[in-house]
Design goal:
The protein has 132 residues and is mainly alpha-helical. The protein is 77% helix and 0% strand. It is found in: Membrane.
Length: 132
């Protein structure tokens, strides 16, 4: 593959992921979505005070928005891509918890194995954006 073609592919991945992460981050601030996402946090990870589930959802939404915006800025793109890869690892327990409670979370309860495979693919693509 030509280097210029690879650069274009990297850019397209970055821009598409930027849009997706910004939109998903904004969704964390929609009250109904925020409540559902807060319920997805496993009981063992729930805390009181500042680390209440709703605050964690707002924080992760802000992280997604910041990371998504970072993917649009060439100088920030590598660090944003790495930060989003770490983010995907950090939120995986909530996705796993939702997967084990399909009756409660419906369509958000993506079965664990496909979710894990998708997360690995997303992380790999983010690392391609970061490091080429």
């Amino acid at each position: 593959m030509e280097p210029a073609t690879f650069d274009v592919i990297q850019l397209v991945i970055a821009l598409v992921f930027g849009v997706v992460f910004v939109l998903m981050g904004i969704n964390h601030f929609v009250p109904a979505s925020r409540r559902t996402m807060a319920a997805m946090i496993p009981p063992s990870m729930r805390r009181t005070g500042l680390l209440r589930p709703v605050n964690l959802v707002l924080f992760t939404g802000a992280c997604e928005i910041a990371g998504g915006v970072g993917l649009f800025i060439p100088e920030l793109r590598p660090i944003a891509a790495v930060a989003l890869a770490v983010f995907l690892v950090a939120v995986f327990p909530a996705n796993a918890y939702a997967a084990s409670h399909k009756d409660r979370f419906g369509m958000l309860a993506v079965p664990l194995v496909p979710r894990a495979i998708a997360q690995v693919v997303l992380i790999a693509l983010l690392l391609v954006v970061a490091f080429g």
